[in-house]
Amino acid sequence: MPESIFTETKIPYHQKHYNGDFFPVILSPKLNITTLSYDITVFTEAIKAHKPWLESLIHKAGAVLFRGFHVTTADDFNDVVEAFGFEELPYVGGAAPRNIVVGRVFTSNDSPPDQKIPFHHEMAQVPKVPAKLFFFCEVEPGKGGETPIVLSHIVYERMKEKYPEFVERLEEHGLIYTRVLGEEDDPTSPIGRGWKSTFLTKDKNVAEERAAKLGTRLEWMEDGGVKTVMGPIPAIKVDKSQQRKIWFNSMVAAYTGWEDARNDPVKAVTYGDGKPLLADIIYGCLKIMDEESVAIPWQKGDVLLLDNWAVLHSRRPCNPPRRILASLCK
């Protein structure tokens, strides 16, 4: 096997320690980037050569940040994603307004950058979720705009300790998510994806068929929009690869962030039996997520790989410019 070009680095105050392990793991080139420039081909070939080791890192840590590897364009980022060899997952059923950039790469969320996006597992409200997420910083924000991440099993453990009856009820009933979609995308909203792009069709009958496969019921509205009702969906799942329970839901994201001209976030999520959730517990959960989260400021060229079963992510507001690209994998 070729010699590895990777070395693990530390960023003080921007990593957590759990059982002696760092979260996230940060990998940089072994040699100083000013004395030897690793181009994109060297990086992608190193990924292919050391894929089992890299996969073991992501399995153990939940998140790996690659920094300093001269990933400069969307095409470079697409090459990095391809080098890992994970199968692509189409973005069907998600809420974020996004646009394809190149290959398997799209914009992460086209909503205004001054809006916060709360913690969530990607597409947690649909049956088929991505196993891996890639993010790439094409244009770093001047201030703010971080992507905080938090380990899902840590959130579950702390919630079960603080709110045992609530967690028990979640495990019994799950959650129902309700969201109203317009016909077309609304880039002013963080959940502004219209039903045509959500279900990749302009045909209402096809949309209903695809929604049914996602466990979603559609209620058509006079203005051409549609109310989507998803669930009941389990809110606590088991990460089989780690044999531990995880906080796998969009409860906080829906209750605190699913707000626009069509949606009232308080009505966006309920228990699986239709009864309302308690606001103080939801905000208590948000506090736990904030306390346990890590938010490394983006630098141009950063590539962040997340295990979507292990890690929730969010977005802090910022002033433009900021351009973060993404890719989803099975």
TrEMBL record:
Q: Report the leader peptide range.
A: none
InterPro entries of this UniProt entry?
AlphaKG_dependent_hydroxylases, TauD-like_sf, TauD/TfdA-like
In terms of superkingdom, the source organism counts as Eukaryota
Keywords, sorted A to Z:
Oxidoreductase
Q: Which Gene3D superfamilies match?
A: Clavaminate synthase-like
State the Gene Ontology terms under molecular function.
oxidoreductase activity
From the Swiss-Prot or TrEMBL record, give the protein name.
TauD/TfdA-like domain-containing protein
